[in-house]
Fold each of these.
Amino acid sequence: FSQGHNCLGCVAVVSVVEQLAQVHNYTFLTSMDKLCSYLPEKLFLKTTCYLVIQVFGPDIIKLLRTDLNADVVCHTLKFCKQETGQPLCHLYPSRKETWKFALEKARWIVKKSPVLKHSGND
Amino acid sequence: FNICSLPVLAKLCQKIKFAINNAVPFKDIDSDKYSVFPTLRGYHWRGRDCNDSNKMVYPGRRPDNWDVHQDSNCNGIWGIDPSDGIPYEKKFCEGSEPRGIIVLGDSASAHFHISPQWITASQMSVKSFHDLPTALTDELNWPQLSGITGFLSPTSRIKEESIYLRLRARNRCNHRDYQNIAKNGASSQNLETFIESLSRNQLLDHPAIVIYAMVGNDVCSRKKDPVPYMTTPEKFYSKVMQTLKYLNAHLPNGSHVILYGLPDGNFLWDHLHDRYHPLGQLNKDVTYAQFYSFLNCLQVSPCHGWMSSNKTLRTLTSERAEQLSNTLKKIATREKFTNFDLFFVDFDFQEISQEWQKRGGQPWQLIEPVDGFHPNEVASLLLADQLWKKVLLQWPQVLGKENPLNQQIEQVFGDQGGH
């Protein structure tokens, strides 16, 4: 899997979390918890999902609560990366200026995140 | 973190990797390439082994001593009729010209499918993820529901059956004789890396119908500029000939090879670009045009050439696909092989789309909703129907004759032990 697949996977999962919350009026935490509860135990899918929530959940919740979308969340968590000289890849429509502002805001929100601090760029 | 780096899992991971890379079953005790396990290239991909501790027992072989003592070809027919002492295999199958079906293909032949329920919040439940582990261990493919080798009843409401089920219905002696040698990303250029997973013994096995269906990856790539990565007609000719020579050296005499053309993928953009992708349906904010552009930006698109807003690029891709189809046509008319005869059949999406519209459907309903690229289950079965009808009309000898004893086989052996 390439970096691009990681980004695509992240955007899809965060979108689902966001939409589950919207459809059922859940909090983002409940939404993530529900998503994991739907997964089967086989192949450690459920366990892996809960592990992912534990690691990235707090940051995802903080970002989604501030109305930032899946693209911004995944760029902030570094699942998506903009290579130098390359365009910024996003699924949801957004203006360039809004993007810049949203990413700056997001970075500030998760500035003290232990996960991002420890993982460095990866 | 890589789970396979754990010492306890390293060996298992290596075995799984080997099975996937080489398209051979993960669980195959007798190493005959047939398995009693469904996924990881098991019986979802080729007929279920009926004895995994004897490598001389597998689907598709000619019966050993008319299967008096055991079902050596796993077609569910064996033993002796007590009323006259004649072995059942001899009584029911002798002279019926049994044959197997083999597909050499890509993700379309393997039936790549990501369930929309997995990403649609409003439809999500425990039930919607029930089949995720199966799908993951089949590389997100569903060969058991594919148009060529599928053996399960379709999940969509469609009456058409796979080529394998039709061949089996035509002659119950063909039971379990199917092989799906298809891989995601396969093309004429990389088939040589896994063609050896094909199992056919020239001396011991029945002839086979081989469908060569590399329908996209020779013109499709994820690259920013996909044109230089497209297979040229010259390279294509050389690789297809190489494959045919391999088949000639491995297929039993009397086999048939059908070369399947490439489609004109323009229909993808035409029918989908302004529709909403499953991720964009709730808030009406993601169309397929945006989804394609996102995949292209990330360089993960399965086919940048056709899944693009750039009309010139789409036309170029279609032109190259047409050139490659013409190359296949040329090979089918000019080349001769000793162990099989060779045919060419068009991939005519237009025709199945019209058929679907006659039934009240819409063309976009024939495309996989999540990836916006692959033919879905309905399209795969309509394509199989189209292929079957064309072959039956033009070259009926390929399909063999109908076995008049099918009903008796069913009476004696029921479902013949399942697929």
Amino acid sequence: MNIFRLAGDLSHLLAIILLLIKIWKTRSCAGISGKSQILFAIVYVSRYLDLVTTFISVYNTFMKLVFISTSVATIYLMYVKFKATYDHNHDSFRIEFLLVPCFLLALLINNAFTPLEILWTFSIYLEAVAILPQLFLVSKTGEAESITSHYLFALGSYRALYLLNWIYRYYAEGHYDLIAIFAGAIQTILYCDFFYLYITKVLKGKKLQLPA
Amino acid sequence: SSTKDAHDEL
């Protein structure tokens, strides 16, 4: 564990908490893509299957359980409790266009051709693109509430901090995983346009609004 | 590389 990794994990946790606060306080999931949330739940479940096979640390187990349970809770809030506020007309991204290619790529490029390893690889590829339905929704409506912007910023920062963690681990421990590094770089690049808008608009107190 | 290691990251 190094400072970049810890900061990344905390940023990830913060993102999830911000999203739950936004939905709970406004009693609404308007502006949030249910498709992205479903993809994140698939990411966590397929990646953390090793919970039952490998023990790494109390921290590791705890965080995995938190990520799985909060993503299920988010889906429950969106599709059951606050269903009436869910913006499904704008949330029209076809997730099979992400799920199928990620799974095929995981079958082709992986560290080992075993079920758990293929699912881990699939989750890494899927996570890289899971935010696309959310970014698509923001671009369709042309705006995002400020708390949704903070959520997206924290979520994007998490993998960017992991990139720093991987650079650190390469030099400090000689550890690297090309699949995670490659997917993490793609994931971070997808947020760049949003990061720019966040820094130039939201941090100056303006609403995140895309030019018409 | 981590090929043989468990995935210790989240």
